[in-house]
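In practice, a research group might receive sequence data for several interacting partners and want a quick structural hypothesis before committing to experiments. The following worked case mirrors that situation: the sequences arrive first, and a predicted assembly follows.
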Amino acid sequence: MTDEELHGRLIDQQGSRHGLNTPVLIVDLDALARNIDAMAAFAQRHGVRLRPHAKTHKSADIARRQLAAGAVGVCCAKLGEAEVLADQGVDAGLHVTSPVVSAPAIARLMALNARTEGLMCVVDNPANVAALGAAAEGLKPLMVIIDIDPGIRRTGVGSAPAAVALFEAIQAQAGLRYAGVQCYCGAQQHIEDFAARRQAMQDRAAFIRTVIEALAAAGGRPQIVTGGGTGTHRIDVELGLFTELQVGSYVFMDGQYLACDLTGDGAAAPFETALMVDARVVSANTPGLATIDAGFKAFATDAGDPSILAGAPDGATYRFMGDEHGLLILPDKGTLPLAHRVTLGAPHCDPTVNLYDTYHVVQGDTLRALWPVSARGRSR
Amino acid sequence: MTDEELHGRLIDQQGSRHGLNTPVLIVDLDALARNIDAMAAFAQRHGVRLRPHAKTHKSADIARRQLAAGAVGVCCAKLGEAEVLADQGVDAGLHVTSPVVSAPAIARLMALNARTEGLMCVVDNPANVAALGAAAEGLKPLMVIIDIDPGIRRTGVGSAPAAVALFEAIQAQAGLRYAGVQCYCGAQQHIEDFAARRQAMQDRAAFIRTVIEALAAAGGRPQIVTGGGTGTHRIDVELGLFTELQVGSYVFMDGQYLACDLTGDGAAAPFETALMVDARVVSANTPGLATIDAGFKAFATDAGDPSILAGAPDGATYRFMGDEHGLLILPDKGTLPLAHRVTLGAPHCDPTVNLYDTYHVVQGDTLRALWPVSARGRSR
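A structural hypothesis for the assembly, expressed as tokens:
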């Protein structure tokens, strides 16, 4: 199918959000721009660099906007994301935040390093350092970052001695350049109360400092300390620990983060909902209920139910009804007509975005652009 | 990116499953063929037609194999799926099992009807019948099927009088041809005990019969009665109600269906696991744990945790660890080496398939083909 044919199917009434087939992934262009600018200004104000996480949006178009606002690069969760962004010209300052361990993946990493500037990846295991070092020998050196486990046992070294041993292993490899440390405190991001979140981060920061001091004592004071997230960004800069933030979700803001007090002073969240899904009523045979065309294949299901943002009366709620459908439960035995459009918010943006090939970018009800979800499905 | 470049990235050691980057969606070609043949033989033995549901696989390659084994067509959940299959030459006997209601979608439906043979779609609302009739006027007539609500209030008419009124509305439209009824008993599919499932289906069948008798009395005895599913297929044929089955999951078999007693006589399930995900260990710093590269973006999360099929010791279990990772919990403080390959089963196949662009089709450890997930993301 050509792009033109595809475009014809996606948009049947050119230029209007009303004419889009549903379910469709919508980005509010102005809200997105405000979010990007707000985080860029925040980072500048606090003297930290910004390398936003592209795993949220998987989009070269959005990455370019983040870079234009001052980001030093973007983070990628997987090598495949970084490859696709590089293909689209986002080829400087890429950082792969999850270990790259298999022989075929390491070969691809070396190829990516050759064609990009400032590529970094994390390591958490001496065997992986040896494999990367062997692959990089005689080639352009690869920058590596030591991943520190914040205590959830997902990735990272778990202690200062393990970090020092890894630093020494890196130093022994001519093809590798030690660039610093990463510690992403994922579990702390979603603590809804600000004070409790701050306490949890202060506890983690104390641990990270012991690792950094041990590295410094061994000659490996990190130039880069990368971490932080949308949920903790205000606390991250207070800690004075991170040289750069790898915040991701702030571009879109999902239900999980909107539930958190992000400011600690009762003020509104500094970011706003910029991502949503438009759906339509496809069946309406029971008073008080309306079936829409968005189910498990339209929303990630790991974080509860979608919220209703527009198009249904106050008090209406959404319930998943299988792969293809959702049910709107309407107050007062209300009804909605067939084909009526409803706008929903995603409980968790990142895996919801990963279900769609295209962002439909709107200003109000006007369709402004189609942006591909460039790295959709690139989980490897 | 050209297909060749993409292929080069997907498979780094040509021809071997061992060389695949992970996470990767794997189809066991022989198990798939046995499942397709077993259901085809079952339908033939019981004198029912087979129109398997393509929402499970979204693949023209698999649809063609089902047709070659005797299927009269395939079902599609959404219009977009049917369009993509038609693009790939699967253009006869398509049935869209969810209502098509918006003006732009109805225009696409008419275009699809013009270029395919025997297209059918469901209706459950007189307003939709009027809209379809107006669109079809003067064009090739469109075959429509009355959708009957099995009691879950998702789609379908809820009573015999409503079905008769819809039949009369269809008859009043020159552009529409009444073709029969659909009743998909989704909630009954996953009742694990066979006798309880049979009782539930007998109850639903009694209701469906009253609708059919009312339609017959009004001159609308249905030629097609479509429904049934993998969970109830043995019961569906006992009921003597359905002229054709729209079974879907039997091609792959997921954890939900493997948990059901499908035969009622204690015999093994007549279908076997043909779909799986290969993943790799990317971090292994804690005895008893191994982190693999497959999380929320590698598995649908609506039906529990993935099972471990191969590559880990007996007693190991999987736990989701965010978008990109999963944790294997290993017995006896065991360990697995970095890059070690583990094979997992999906708790729910349909939305898991929808996460991937490509099936990697294997026989044993030999890679035989790459099949695109042709209709991936075509939820509209």
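Before designing any experiment, note the following. Confidence is low (pLDDT under 50) at residues 1-10 of chain A. Residues 29-258 of chain A form a domain with the TIM Barrel fold (CATH 3.20.20.10).
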